[in-house]
Amino acid sequence: MNSLGNAAKSYGFATGLTIALLVVNIAYLPQFATPGQWPSVLGQLAPTALIAMATLPSVVSGGLDMSVGPLANFIAILYSVVLLPHGFGSPWVAVPICLAVGLAVGAVNGIVVAILRYQPIVATLAAFIILDGVNLLLAPTAKPTPDNWTAHLSGTIAGVPGGLVLIAAVGFVWFALGRTAFHRSLYAVGGDAAAAYSAGARVTQVRIAAYMLGGLFASVAGLALTGLVQSVDSSYGQLYALIGIAAVAVGGASLRGGVGGLVGVLMGACAIYLAQNAMLAAHIDILWVQVVYGGFLILGVVAGALAGTTRTKAVVA
Amino acid sequence: MSTSPVTTSVSTVVGFQRRYPALQVIIAVALFGYGATTVDGFTSQSSVYSVLMLTALLGLASVGQTLVVLAGGIDFSIPAFILLGQTVTLQLPAESHWPVGVAIGLGVLLGLLAGGVSGWICHRFGVESLVVTLGMSALVTGAVQVWTKGYFTGTPPEWLLNIASAAGTTFGLPFPPLLAIWIVVALVAAVVLHRTATGRRFYAVGTNPRAASFSLVPVGRYRVWVYALSAALAVLVGVCLAGFASGDPNAGSPYLFESLAAVVIGGSTFGGRGDYSRTVVGAFVIVLLSTILIGKGLSESAQQIVYGVMILVIVGGYGRERHLRNRV
């Protein structure tokens, strides 16, 4: 009960912001509210939201995975450049391969952080640079992807928006894990690793699992990205890497670990996407978009922290 | 229980490595030796000078990053302030007929102000510097782009070209001024950090801010100044880059990660041990490594992959955390 109240406060700000920005979007673009638009809106939101969700497990575990953006782009490029041309393009073959690759890269990150004891930011920054290099190797120039089934991911699957299906799938995995001991260990390790270790939590395994989970979610984000852009471009990775961290911070998760939830991060991602969309809809000069985005980021993280402060005080009192 | 001679000598080596960047220096020397023996023209005067100039620029761009990391944060706004420095140097004299000196002064002032605001926000609201500096970076970059529409019109003045050139002269001596500036900055940083009360208080703020504030160290003021200095120094690097790579608005972007890599390879830790001389060695390692990779004719993608792996290999020798059972 108590934890539920805390969670509501930590993402209350991001939720309020999302609702306000949704109203702004609908005011400028009335068609934004028509159900026919929802598949394309959710398709555009999905890569941002999924990369933010992929950043969450490592952040909660007290670390940080900088490499989920390039990893998602690697999966997108892997599908378009390697799997599809070699006849492995069907979803029944490609999806398991992509998910396995995401898990494997996450496991490597986790092992480097948890067993080899590198600082998370150093380890995942190196992974960021390496993955970006691999992406550049596989896709030296931007080019379109041939027609394939992933187009449904930014459209509809059996009448349901594809973006919603992917976000819901990741959400299902996260909340299913919420029923297990892993979930509690993850927050304990992020809150105070030494205390969790003393209490008998398997810190190393929990940390590796956190990065693997992030890698798994990042591979889903990669599929969403392929569905949305239908092309390969090695520069997408960097673009999404920083948005993911921003969404996590605005969504009330603490980069110090142990605090944050999936709903908050999802709301943070929605707020960032809607803010960008609203600026485009209001015909604000594209050059101003970055200024507003920067201010939004600072205000968002400060407001999130202020909400967090009241929470901490309430707990202490 | 007596300790065996082997354990003692191991702990002596570890203690020495903890105090001095010995492994880092060995790696830098080894890289130079490897480059000199396997890459043609690596030891030619022009090549050595270009390595020195690039290292000086990276070193200057990493001063602020070193301070921020030692204070327990991270600065992702360095490229934005480099862009600001380039812009004021090239744009204001060309468009508004400002004297270059005044334009640079204004740039440094703006840097101090914006960096200080980042530091104040991080301190006052207890939020992550990574996100705040990322936001400030977008804010500054966006503002500059609104102003310049994305490209520069002016040309750098003669004296600035001299500063940024490997063939430049310092007070008539045939020594690149940029290198001279860097040496002075490195010496000042070493003296201030290790020999003054300011330096000691600064380390106290980074290692344990609570204890520092109980010892009446003005923690907030130190944090504001660290971020302000980092931004102002990045503006000055931008001024130099305006002479070095005059019209390229993206000249600062590699410094986002390279400044952090220089600090980490140097062996400074977040909110803890380290100093600027370590970053100097780290900057040499990075520039030597990338010069060798380019000299070997590797493609950009292969360079990047090797570079990423090398960061892990190098840092693995000394930059890892203690095991949890030793932290309980």
Poorly predicted runs of chain A: 1-5, 310-317
Helix content of chain B: over 70%
Please give the count of helices of chain A: 12
> Per the principal axes of the C-alpha atoms, what is the gross shape of chain A?
globular
User: Could you say which structural class the secondary elements and strand pairing of chain A correspond to?
Assistant: mainly alpha
Instruction: Let me know the average pLDDT of chain B.
Output: 87
- Portion of residues in beta strands of chain B equals under 5%
Cα-atom Rg of chain B, whole angstroms?
Answer: 21 Å
Number of strand segments of chain B: 0
From the alpha carbons, calculate the radius of gyration of chain A and give it in angstroms: 19 Å
Question: What portion of residues of chain A belong to β-strands?
Answer: under 5%
Termini distance of chain A? 17 Å
Query: Strand order of the main beta sheet of chain A, please?
Result: 1-4
- Listing every helix as H and every strand as E from the N terminus to the C terminus, the arrangement of chain A reads HHHHHEEEHHHHEHHH
Going by helix content, strand content and strand pairing, the class of chain B is: mainly alpha
Question: How is the biggest beta sheet of chain A arranged?
Answer: 2 strands, antiparallel
- The sequence of SSEs of chain B as H and E is HHHHHHHHHHHHHH
Largest protein-protein interface: A-B, 52 and 52 residues
Report the span from N to C terminus of chain B. Answer: 23 Å
Task: Tell me about this structure.
The complex is a heterodimer of chains A (317) and B (328). Chain A has 12 helices and 4 strands, in the order αααααβββααααβααα. Chain A has 317 residues and is mainly α. Chain A is globular, with a radius of gyration of 19 Å. With 328 residues, chain B is mostly helical. Chain B contains 14 helices and no strands. Chain B has helices spanning 5-19, 22-38, 45-70, 78-96, 100-125, 129-148, 158-164, 177-195, 197-207, 209-214, 219-244, 255-266, 276-295, 300-316. In chain B, α4 (78-96) packs antiparallel against α5, α4 packs parallel to α6 and α5 (100-125) packs antiparallel against α11 (219-244). Chains A and B meet through α5, α8, α10 and α12 of A and α6, α12 and α14 of B.
